[in-house]
């Protein structure tokens, strides 16, 4: 089963907004709506799970009300991934990205070690269905259990976008794939020269710049 995991539990402090980051308005939608719509249009994704936390309680309320999202609980037959629902939320501790990632992998591992988990940050509204499907297709043709997507630094520099970390001329995109096992997994590196992957909404300035693409 291919499950998209939307990381939506962070504090979003760099954005300096008076709302939770996933509920930051961009034109006529919230930030998280763009991500969920792009994922939902993919015919390769079976389920969509939004990882919320105490930092994003209003986001969870929004998901329940507007996406009929159920609480994911593998110990409860009512809230399992094999039910008809497409959207779920998963409460995470919200202590940090790495900690939440570990919590998610442990949770899914209780159900199966063979779920394919596509992780995407909730601040990537321009990552469209075509990009998502391409990444999944590359993963399916790979013989490695994990895949990480990178963007060359020149894409950021050409568009005047700041980045906080780079490795050998490439920047992590916030889009990657893991099997549902909380172990170190050998990964395939996929480098994509794509402006859409470079625009993550971390600041008000980026949010203003990104609206011309929506």
Write a structural description:
The structure is a single chain. The protein is of the alpha/beta class and 214 residues long. The chain is 30% helix and 24% strand. The chain is built from seven helices and ten strands. The strands form two sheets. It has an eight-stranded mixed β-sheet with strand order 5-6-4-1-7-9-8-10, with helices on both faces. A two-stranded antiparallel sheet has the order 2-3. The radius of gyration is 16 Å and the shape is globular.
Provide tags for this entry.
two-stranded antiparallel ribbon, single chain, 8-stranded mixed sheet, alpha/beta, 214 residues
Short description:
The chain is an alpha/beta fold and 214 residues long. The chain has helices spanning 31-40, 57-67, 97-109, 129-141, 153-158, 195-198, 204-210, and strands at residues 2-7, 25-26, 29-30, 47-52, 70-71, 87-91, 116-121, 146-152, 170-179, 187-191.
Distance between the termini: 30 Å
Question: Which stretches are low in confidence, meaning pLDDT under 50 for 5 or more residues running?
Answer: none
Q: Which structural class do the helices and strands define? A: alpha/beta
Order of helices and strands: EEEHEHEEHEHEHEEHH
Helix content: 25-40%
Mean pLDDT: 93
| Number of DSSP helical runs | 7
Main beta-sheet annotation: 8 strands, mixed
């Amino acid at each position: 089963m291919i499950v998209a995991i939307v990381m939506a539990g962070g504090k979003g402090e760099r954005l300096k907004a008076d709302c939770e980051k996933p509920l930051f308005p961009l034109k006529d939608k919230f930030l998280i709506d763009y991500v969920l719509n792009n994922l939902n249009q993919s015919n390769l994704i079976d389920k969509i799970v939004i990882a919320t936390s105490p930092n994003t309680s209003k986001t969870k309320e929004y998901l329940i009300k507007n996406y009929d999202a159920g609480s994911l609980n593998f110990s409860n037959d009512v809230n399992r991934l094999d039910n008809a629902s497409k959207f779920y939320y998963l409460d995470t501790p919200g202590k940090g990205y790495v900690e939440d990632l570990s919590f998610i992998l442990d949770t899914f591992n209780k159900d199966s070690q063979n779920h394919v988990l596509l992780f995407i940050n909730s601040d990537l509204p321009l990552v469209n269905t075509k990009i998502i499907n391409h990444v999944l297709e590359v993963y399916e043709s790979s013989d490695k259990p994990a895949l990480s997507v990178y963007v060359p630094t020149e894409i950021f520099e050409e568009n005047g976008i700041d980045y906080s970390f780079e490795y050998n001329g490439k920047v992590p995109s916030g889009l990657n794939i893991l099997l549902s096992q909380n172990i170190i997994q050998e990964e395939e590196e996929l480098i994509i020269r794509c402006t859409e992957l470079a625009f993550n909404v971390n600041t008000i300035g980026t949010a203003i710049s990104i609206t011309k693409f929506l």
